[in-house]
Amino acid sequence: MTHTSPSPELLARLVCPVTKGPVHYDPASNSIISPRAGLAFPVRDGIPVMLPEQATKLED
């Protein structure tokens, strides 16, 4: 399965909707990671879904 990653321009503008802190893209899980919130936001068709109710908790 091929994932379409978000554009670098979009990634530069994203912040976590919960903490307002920095996020980064993880190609292995095809998600936007918020380390401070401990959440992974899914990316669907290259579009980050930055809704807290759609995020999954990161494992410790």
UniProtKB/TrEMBL annotation:
Q: Which Gene3D superfamilies match?
A: 2.20.25.10
Q: Name the family.
A: Belongs to the UPF0434 family.
Identify this protein by name.
Answer: UPF0434 protein IGM82_08790
Organism of origin is Bombella apis
Upper taxonomic classification of the species?
A: Bacteria, Pseudomonadati, Pseudomonadota, Alphaproteobacteria, Acetobacterales
